[in-house]
Amino acid sequence: MKALAAALAAWDQSLSLDAGEPLAWNALVWFACKRTFETLVTSTVFDALSGTELYPAALANALRDRFPSASLFPNGKRALLVAALDDAAAWLKTRFGSIDTKTFKLGDVQTAEFDAADKGRLEVMGSPKAGGFETVDVASIAFFEMGKPRMTFSTKTAALYRMVIGFGADGTPEATFDTARGASGDPDSPHFGDLQKPWVERQHVPLPFRQTDVDAKTEVTVTLKGLQKK
Fold first, then answer.
1. Per-residue confidence at 121, pLDDT binned at 50, 70, 90?
2. Beta bridge partners of 153
3. CA 23 to CA 8: how far, in whole Å?
4. d(CA 107, CA 196)
5. What is the pTM (predicted TM-score) of this model?
């Protein structure tokens, strides 16, 4: 437990796919929430709302004494957190065979799923998904199911489009973006899923504004001609 606590203390708090600390952190938070709120709202209600930010937000506010909360921690805040850390360590050891955060990573178990109305050619595989609740790279995922931690964590709620906008020194607009899947809804198009990898890896793609950049990116030119009057 001391080693796990030390790893979390040294963690940069980035919920990246290649890190193990986000998994340990999620487990710590959710076991603390379970110990604090489950008996108050019943197991059924706790499970039903465990895919939202409700419990982590309420726990954070209670731990910071932002509302009367002494009754939530009958044995004290430290006792709660130590017990939750023990729960997290036990789960990590059972699930991954170790509590060493270098032996597992978030990308092993957390994905984003993309539903399609047509389960044929429009259906796509899930992708590894970074982020978590209450982050810019949001991934709202229920940690528990039927009172037990899930084996894998899948979200259908995520930031699908992000853009950063500015201006160059010459006043020309500049922007970068990342978006899930691609710009085309046609499975035969090379742009049906060509932006998925940058989205997963949090790599922003530049948008062309200068003429030379536009020309370099141009694939097809369409000319619209008005109807001639007779």
1. confident
2. 110
3. 10
4. 15
5. 0.80
